[in-house]
Amino acid sequence: MQKGNFFGLLACVSALALSACGQEAPPAPPPPSVGVVTLKTESAPLLNELPGRISAFETAEVRPQISGVIRRRLFTEGGTVQAGQLLYEIEDAPYRAALAQAQGSLANAQAAIRSTGLQAQRYKDLVGINAVSKQEYDDAAAAAQQARANVAAQQGAVQAAQVNQNFTRIRAPISGRIGRSLLTPGALVQTGQADPLTTIQRTDRVYVDVTQSAAQIIDLKQAMKAGGISEAQGARIQLILPNGSVYPGEGRLQFADVTVDSSSGAVTLRAIFPNADGLLLPGMYVRAKLIEGERTQAILAPQQGISRDARGRATAMVVGKDNKVEMRQVTVDRAIGDKWIVTSGLKPGDQLIVEGLVNLRPGTVVKPGAPQQVTAPEGGAKPAAAQGASNAGEAH
């Protein structure tokens, strides 16, 4: 009886197993679709965006050379002046009187030359016949020499008085745009005063002083020496204005300072820009894009394909053998537009995954295709992700 029950139970289990085997097993899920970009080598300009300040090509602070009261101002504030143009007049009555006094003293000294000269000549004749003593002749000759020296001194005094009188008319030392007048007619000015009367700036061309860290300069020079980077021709510079727009003119690098700022560890670079329309104003803060050189045989990877791991290291996912995902640790140099210059970790021909990275793990088998948004060719084949979605819709 028990033996019969056992065989009956075994027959039921076999029947259930056969019934289950008769049903179809569920299909395996398709591999996830990813968008990939095939990397290649190309030339890439090395751009560096640096902060900078604009300064005038020439600047002159107009200061008085003498003391006096301003009588007139002869320019329009904010206008353009030419070198030598009359700007201010200082009351010159005291200086005209000083000049007249110096001229009178010169005339007096010139008159004394004749009398002392004649006396010295007479004594010279008389000392030959012992009519006067040698001492008297020496005194007469010295008096004549002193008279001539006094004339020279008085001529210098006349010139000094004339210079001071000329300083009562203050002229523009350079051509350019003149600022506001800090003093008005009737104000007293003094020699060596701290505040200028006004300032003139030449701005048809301007300087842009930018700062770059010494470490970046050393890295660039070492990379050029090692090869793979060519020096930029003419060192072109582009300006980004405070409102974010790009200045239409292009500048040229003039020189780099010969010392490093001990407080910041930076080196000052000076560029010159045309400014015919006066858009660039001295003191304006700008950003300068400096083309330092060109990297040959560079690998440019879309920024969407480069991420950071928990330790902050740059990583990339690539499609390897048998369409399996591989993780690479990479080293990036700088950004060129929306791409990174990769110096190690990737090579030409690698298929970099730029789309479909969410929850993607190394070793996963994927279906690579053209990306939807990153470097997608117009009118090309439908991206793999879109194809997968379309096939899924047809299956349902």
Automatic annotation (TrEMBL):
Domain Multidrug resistance protein MdtA-like C-terminal permuted SH3 intervals: 297-357
Biased composition (Low complexity): 376-396
UniProt-annotated location(s): Cell envelope
Any one GO CC term of the record: plasma membrane
Gene Ontology terms: biological process: response to antibiotic
Family as reported in the entry's similarity comment: Belongs to the membrane fusion protein (MFP) (TC 8.A.1) family.
Record keyword Signal present: yes
Protein name per UniProt: Efflux transporter, RND family, MFP subunit
Keywords: Signal
Name of a matching Pfam family: BSH_RND
Organism whose genome encodes this protein: Sphingobium yanoikuyae ATCC 51230
GO molecular function: transmembrane transporter activity
Sequence ranges assigned to domain Multidrug resistance protein MdtA-like beta-barrel in this UniProt record: 206-292
Multidrug resistance protein MdtA-like barrel-sandwich hybrid domain: residues covered: 58-201
Main subcellular location: other
Annotated InterPro entries: MdtA-like_b-barrel, MdtA-like_BSH, MdtA-like_C, MdtA-like_HH, RND_pump_MFP
Renumbered residue ranges of the record's region Disordered: 370-396
Domain Multidrug resistance protein MdtA-like alpha-helical hairpin residues, every copy: 99-168
Signal peptide range: 1-19
Keyword NAD listed: no
